[in-house]
Design brief:
The chain is mainly alpha-helical. It contains 15 helices and two strands. It has a two-stranded antiparallel ribbon. The protein is elongated, with a radius of gyration of 36 Å. The two termini are about 30 Å apart.
Length: about 400
């Protein structure tokens, strides 16, 4: 594993970790690998399990260490507390670092079960944790300081890697193996989306998603406007066609059309208008009353077909009226076509950033939940009503699902 250049804060914490490890008789190489895997020697940072500081000690462990939860935000106290926990786990397993790390990352009960039966299934987060530390420190060697080598105080830091601590192996800065094209693309994207401390910049991705959503909304609005203009032109053309007179003014219905204007703009021929007018007169008291009550069926349409058509029309008008009423209550902003896609895009950007952050911290279940939420928010930008509804639902449901996941992780 290649470590980046350390800042002053990381150097100070690494120095304290190495010295404190020697004080407790722990191999400093193992202690430094643990802290690097936990929080990159940084003092700030809270995990989904409410673990804090360079050693990522859970706030729920404060009472058992005779500390207050707020004490663990002090790097000096945090490092000492983390070293005490690591020492307890090493003592419980006679210095076996693999079992001790399972206890440190997951819980001592799982470590004991795994030590007794290696077939015990480990959480994916713990498997990744062991693999990450195993890439820096041989887990087949004891986690205690070798009795053969004298314990010495670490020298003052003089470089930007960890070699001055006499802890990590000398090949720590060897060239990493070449990455595949996909890995290189991901690494490049990850660098672009990183904050000043290497963390995922959620603000940047949220803003980028909102801009993308705005562009999608503007495109949809442009397409809709183009369609409306095209439909309007078609209607004008049809009206002009319907309004032209026949060459023969004495043709059936032409005099009636000229006198009344019927047939213009409705899309029906003059013959249809005349026929419907004659049918509307009725042929008796019963048929006349029926025409007044229910209207006149179109040509080739039964009475039941007409009633069904009118019912559908009434339902559609009611839906439109309800929608307009809701929009009036929400206000003008809801009618702006880019607002919805912009919100969905921003939500997608945040969920994707949170997914990457959780995955890198080992919270696989949380990453999956946020990934689904991000996909749902992306789907919410699609103009199709069903796709938009399903996407919005997934995006909204991912919020409580993530909270439940964090709660369960905290209680583990």
């Amino acid at each position: 594993m290649k470590l980046p250049k350390l800042n002053e804060e990381q150097k100070v914490n690494a120095q304290m970790i190495a010295d404190k490890a020697r004080e407790y008789g722990i191999d400093p190489e193992l202690a430094l690998a643990v802290s690097w895997a936990e929080n990159n020697f940084k003092s700030e940072g809270v995990s989904p399990k409410n673990a804090v500081g360079p050693m990522q000690v859970r706030l729920t462990n404060a009472k058992g260490l005779n500390l207050k939860p707020e004490d663990l935000y002090d790097p000096v106290i945090n490092i000492d507390a983390g070293m005490r926990i690591l020492k307890e786990n090493l003592d419980a397993h006679k210095g076996n670092p693999r079992y001790a790390l399972i206890g440190y990352n997951a819980n001592p009960t799982l470590a004991k079960s795994y030590a007794q039966n290696n077939n015990t299934e480990l959480p994916l987060e713990t498997q990744n944790y062991l693999a990450k530390i195993g890439g820096m420190r041989d887990l087949t060697q004891t986690g205690f300081i070798s009795q053969e080598a004298p314990v010495q105080q670490a020298p003052a830091p003089t470089e930007d890697d960890l070699s001055y601590l006499g802890a990590l192996p000398p090949d720590i800065d060897q060239k990493e193996p070449e990455l595949s094209g996909i890995d290189q693309l991901y690494q490049r994207a990850r660098e672009l989306a990183s904050g000043p401390e290497g963390e995922v910049d959620k603000t940047l991705l949220t803003g980028a998603g909102a801009l993308a959503g705005t562009a999608v909304g503007a495109t949809q609005a442009g397409v809709g406007l183009t369609k409306k203009i095209s439909d309007a032109l078609d209607t004008v053309a049809q009206n002009r066609g319907a309004g032209t007179t026949s060459g023969d003014e004495n043709a059936p219905g032409q005099k009636y059309k000229k006198k009344t204007g019927y047939g213009r703009g409705s899309g029906y021929t003059v013959e249809d208008v005349v026929t419907n007018r004659e049918r509307a007169k009725g042929h008796g008291k019963v048929s006349g009353k029926m025409s007044k009550m229910w209207g006149v069926p179109e040509r080739g349409e039964s009475l039941m077909d007409m009633l069904y058509r009118k019912q559908k029309t009434a339902e559609q008008l009611a839906k439109e009226a309800a929608r307009n009423k809701m929009l009036d209550k929400i206000g003008f902003i809801s009618k702006v076509p880019v607002i919805g896609p912009a919100i969905a895009g921003g939500s997608a950007g945040y969920d994707i950033a949170d997914m990457i952050d959780r995955y890198e911290k080992g919270d696989t279940s949380g990453a999956v939940i946020k990934g689904i939420g991000g996909l749902g928010s992306l789907a919410a930008m699609v103009p199709h009503p069903l796709t938009r509804a399903v996407g919005t639902g997934l995006g909204v449901l991912s919020i409580p699902a993530g909270m439940i996941n964090d709660y369960i992780k905290e209680k583990e």
